[in-house]
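#struct-help
A.M.: can someone run this one for me? Single chain, 473 residues.
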Amino acid sequence: MTTEPLAPAQAVASVVAAWDDALRSTDPLDFPGYTTPASSEESVRTALVEFGGRPAVWIDCDFRRVGGTMGAVAGERIVRAFDRATQMGVPVVETISTGGARLQEGMLSLLQMPRTVSAAARHAAAGLRSAAYLRSPATGGVFASFVSVADLRAAEPEATIGFGGPRVVAEVTGAYPPPTSHTAESALRHGLIDAIVDPSRCWDWLAAAVGVITAGPLVPPPGRPHGPDATARPEDPYEHLLRARGSGRPSGLEWAAWLTDEWVEIGGSDPAVRAGLAAVDGRRVVVVAMDRFAGAFRPGAPGPGAYRLAQRAVRLADRLGLPVLTLVDTPGAEPSPESEAGGLAGEIARTLLALAELASPSVSVIVGEGGSGGAVALAHTDQLFVLDGAVFSVIGPEAGAAILYRDPARVPELTRSLRLTPDELLRLRVVDRVLPEDVASVRAAVTEALAQARAGTKDSRPHLATAAAVANQ
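D.P.: on it. Structure tokens below:
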């Protein structure tokens, strides 16, 4: 077995001090044929590192050392590393390739799963960040413990990822998993990791994920609108609605790119909602943006997974003490049988709950169509703005006409009755402010709101709007 040096593979970080090299595994089970590794050949090694003078704690678990398995010494090193990071008030970065628990140490190995998760929880409770980069393979009890509770996770392309490795799956189920399973690409598609990153960029991604270097900007997919909608805003509410839905009109993702200076993706399974650790004019913020050009079910219609991502992003912001910016643009949530079976209503409710419980300031901008409960799920914020070309409605007028009139010909009539245009929303006290549709004005308003919004005031606006609508008897 070769001894790998404890040093980052790239020059982004430098090792300041290696830790706990004197700890060495024993053979607690007297396991036949088991040779305990030398301290320097132990699967897990830990160190204090610096990124351009900014410190972080590094946990390195390497498959080339004892199969990357976690025994008592590996677990002890991990726990001590997290606790030191907590005491020092610094983030944790992890590079991981592992076969899981060390079978030759039996239950003493398995006990390291809860121990390491508890240590990670203490670090998280201190408001500190963590990020993991997964190499191949990343399986078993290491993947199913402290690694999977890291704030952000990335993997190298085509890495084998899963709780049970393919050989275990074949033994237990009688068949090997298909080639599309147990891969980094599958994990990304299902929202189990946040990015696929080439090994040459591993340390750049880790450093950006924990905020010790500046991340790159958000870049929307090709073919998207390059600027706000410059067409004239019609007076008729139905024509206003059609303009808000226009194919050349930017969605939340484009506005997120224009309003932020940097972006680290928080991955999810439904691209109808995107989220990121971002910065707006130097202020760190978590952004949740709806994208009506994309979706797991159909474009712009968020399903349960989209709202689970929103909850994860808001909860992360809450733990890190960061403000939240949401950008709303959807005709409504996806009501298909598959979406309903996935718990759509409950996920919308839990998204509202996450925002209701958020202890840091929150701001929302309706940038396009705000349709029904699927939109209000991201609009329960301390300040709520609407662009002057956007709409916000109790329901999509087509669905509303089907309910009230059973007559699609009456959609324009119902649109006018719903009072969904920005001026009407301001009159009804549904929103705090109407913003002109230019990037500089919106950015200035958002920057000011993020600085001045008072956390915990999000109920005031709906309370006042309700009071104005309730007649005293």
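A.M.: thanks! The mean pLDDT is 94.
D.P.: also worth noting: The chain has two domains: 14-209, 237-469.
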